[in-house]
């Protein structure tokens, strides 16, 4: 019996390694092909000229001004979208969970609604709104923050809601309130530290969505990274592929950091509670 269990465990480990290897090859081969393309010089030689130019910001800004403008615009959009999403969503979800549980389904429906609306349809509805936004705030690409906040609501809500479901938030809040803490203190110093991983997950998902969004920015005639890469591909395919690869690697690093933070949090939790 023990031998059968060991053989079954070995087969399961072998199966896991085979699946992981196949998935690794499936995902890494396109990335390696992109890397090889960006390091291909004349006559098939190896060169890092494209990556040196990408790392040299003053030279990149002079050589590809539209790309540098798109990078700066996307970074600003990332920061503003993350800030606006968390400021709006985190207190709202916590407050509904603690004080207004009957509205939870309504809030969930409203947050998940953007998933049911295609981006092209969403742009049609946003176009008249952005006409007024342009009139009031100007035509800055940073105004895309409002549209991106709507797009990221389903993913950020699910992440934060899952974090709240993993803890007994009502007991924590009642204990803090019995000790004289106000609701602001309960949210900021009691609940928020316990859903740190969920909040980071929402932030990283927001970063990944904003860096990869193209449809809304293009149809609203705004500039971001993907619009700049699309335009750059018509004149310099090597640089456009290099920028796309760098964005993919950045998203992977963010997800890796999230997994490390979540793993560290789970490892320290038993020590904290013992």
TrEMBL record:
The UniProt keyword set, sorted, is: Cell inner membrane, Cell membrane, Membrane, Transmembrane, Transmembrane helix, Transport
| Family annotation (InterPro entries) | MetI-like, MetI-like_sf
Q: Where in the cell is it found?
A: Cell inner membrane; Cell membrane
Its main subcellular localisation, reduced to a broad class, is membrane
Location of the ABC transmembrane type-1 domain: 71-258
Q: How does it sit in the membrane?
A: Multi-pass membrane protein
Q: Which SUPFAM superfamilies match?
A: MetI-like
The residues that cross the membrane are 14-35, 71-94, 106-126, 132-157, 198-220, 240-261
- State the family it belongs to: Belongs to the binding-protein-dependent transport system permease family.
In its UniProt entry, what is this protein called? ABC transporter permease subunit
Source lineage: Bacteria, Bacillati, Actinomycetota, Actinomycetes, Micromonosporales
């Amino acid at each position: 019996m023990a031998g059968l269990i060991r053989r079954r465990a070995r087969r399961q480990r072998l199966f896991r390694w085979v699946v992981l290897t196949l998935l690794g090859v499936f995902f890494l081969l396109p990335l390696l092909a992109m890397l090889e393309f960006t390091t291909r010089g004349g006559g098939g030689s190896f060169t890092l000229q494209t990556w040196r130019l990408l790392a040299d910001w003053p030279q990149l800004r002079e050589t590809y001004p539209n790309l540098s403008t798109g990078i700066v615009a996307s970074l600003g959009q990332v920061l503003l979208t993350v800030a606006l999403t968390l400021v709006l969503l985190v207190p709202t979800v916590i407050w509904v969970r603690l004080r207004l549980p009957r509205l939870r389904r309504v809030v969930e429906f409203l947050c998940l609604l953007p998933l049911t609306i295609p981006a092209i349809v969403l742009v049609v509805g946003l176009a008249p709104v952005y006409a007024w936004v342009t009139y009031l705030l100007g035509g800055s690409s940073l105004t895309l923050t409002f549209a991106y906040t709507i797009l990221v609501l389903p993913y950020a809500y699910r992440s934060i809601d899952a974090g709240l479901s993993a803890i007994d938030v009502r007991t924590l809040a009642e204990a803090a309130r019995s000790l004289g803490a106000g609701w602001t203190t309960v949210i900021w110093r009691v609940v928020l530290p316990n859903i740190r991983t969920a909040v980071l997950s929402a932030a990283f998902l927001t970063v990944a969505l904003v860096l990869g969004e193209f449809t809304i920015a293009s149809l609203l005639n705004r500039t971001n990274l993907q619009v700049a890469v699309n335009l750059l591909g018509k004149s310099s395919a090597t640089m456009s592929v290099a920028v796309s690869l760098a964005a993919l690697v950045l998203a992977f690093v963010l997800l890796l950091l999230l997994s490390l933070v979540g793993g560290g949090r789970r490892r320290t939790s038993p020590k904290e509670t013992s």
